Fold this protein.
Amino acid sequence: MAATTETLVGVFAHVDTTVRALEELWAKGYHDVTVYTPVPVHEIEEVLERDRPLSRVRLFTLLGGLTGIVSAFLLTIWTSLVWGLVTGGKYLQLAPEGIVGASLPPFFIIAFELMVLFGGIATVIGMVVLGRLPRFRPSRGFDPRFTNDRFGIAVHCAPERSTSVREILREAGAEDVRA
Amino acid sequence: MSDSHATSPTFADVTRDVARTLAPPGNLYFGWMSVVALILTAGIVAWTGQIWWGMGMAGKRVPQMWAMYITSFVFWIGIGHAGTLISAILYLFRARWRTSIYRAAEAMTIFAVMTAGLFPLIHAGRMWFAYYLLPYPNQRDLWPNFRSPLVWDVFAISTYLSISTVFFIVGLVPDIAALRDVSSGWRRRIYAMLALGWEGADSQWRHYRRAYGLLASLATPLVLSVHSVVSWDFAMALVPGWHSTLFAPFFVDGAIFSGFAMVLILVLPMRHFFGLHTYIQEKHLDAMGKLILVTGLVLTYFYLCEIFTTLYSGDDIDKASLFWKVTKTYAWALWLMYFCNCVSPLILFWKAARTSPVVLYVVSILVLIGMWFERFNIIVPSLGHDFYPYTWGIFYPSPTDTMIVIGSFAWFFLLFLGFIRVMPSLSVVEVKETLPPPMKDKAHGSHH
């Protein structure tokens, strides 16, 4: 892939010129684009979200949260069964009709806490995995200005189309276009 | 909104101004560091003495086996509530004024919970057995009692510390990337490592934003649950003055009240010494002042409810306990608390007071004093005057426990002072987000 594509980077100082360039690229059929912004920008996200699926981080959160709830109930019920601590004259035990002998509601507190804990950690794992972090070397289109005050569009295209891309970026108002 | 005198800062200004806060500090900073370190050392010496000679050093005796340490534990957990309130709840409500203070508040939360976490260890005496609190497989099949509020507390607080830390780190990643790209030398190398190679690419932001929103949604009920669980440490017991369903909301409100006071205590000097007036404006101080006022009024209402339910209950022991608290040995602490928490915030009804750093600072200090004594008044007099006269007793603090409590403040401030030196104490990304985005075609938006 790296051999057959070229990466052109347009550096923009304004949000509206960046959006204009993106619209133009979309219209011309260039979708293999990476956009760098110092902050998340709504206008840019709107353009990008047209053909990018919603982040799947929430799936991680859901699975993490459910794991937390299940493991909390397993932990609390199982330990109460192996170590029958008598409180109020009762202790938890297995009977033919199910778990009897003491109330389960106190365990909901542990379940809630572990849901939040596992869910939160899974969310971060999701963000790291899906966002391909950590990155050990900068990507081809990155420029240090993009974390400060410039917006960047890196277009990955076939070398023979680079002049047309260059033109689109320039015309939209890029301060600088580099390969 | 009337903007400040100057035109609003640009994105580059924000990066530069935040990077400026990390420039080598002056003597004043090291002076404060030394003072704080000295006090902390005294606290550590006191703790060492307590470990060496035993818990008698802490002045603990029946009936007040919970005294200064548990008071301070609850106090510090309460302080830790403002940070996640600001970063999670106010994030979900899109309160834009939070952006310039939330980083400092989040750091404060983590340090406050770290401080609070010391107290159960100090209180337990042989803190090297602290792992007994956690469920771990062992030969004798001994497990903690999951029906005990103290075990809920272990789970609530460790979850709170973990999630607050995670939230804090996630928020820091893009900011550290911004600092990485404007710094040089060894700093740059460290920031590069900590930024995980963040570039602000659309694929990163997409997952980041989603993850941040989800973390905020998870942290929101967590904030409310943690102090509720702490309150159940008391409310689940039968001690008169503790056994009340009022406790959970009462504690949560008090926590937010004291947490905001601590945020002001940290943010006001930061604003002054770093010259962050462009970012932490009067409207931010005003908003925090309003929150302190509201939570203070709610707290006053809870105090009245507490008295009312006791009087209305017809329970003689409860009434006797209240009468004793209001009029006898510890009455000064109760009335000090009423003054600090109910009367002193009333000045914030005036806008001039809410925007005056000096007034806010004084009120915040009073609120912290009041809130420390609130926990003292819940714990010490209640334990000292329960069902039977032969178990009544008066607690006297000892030099050891007093020094350890003072040392805990030093530990907290040491952590915070260290933090503002090495990490962006103002969120680069979130502050930029609240600025009007740079547009070419519109006359640079002076209105919204």
Remarks:
- Residues 1-5, 444-448 of chain B have pLDDT under 50 and may be disordered.
- The longest helix of chain B spans residues 202-235.
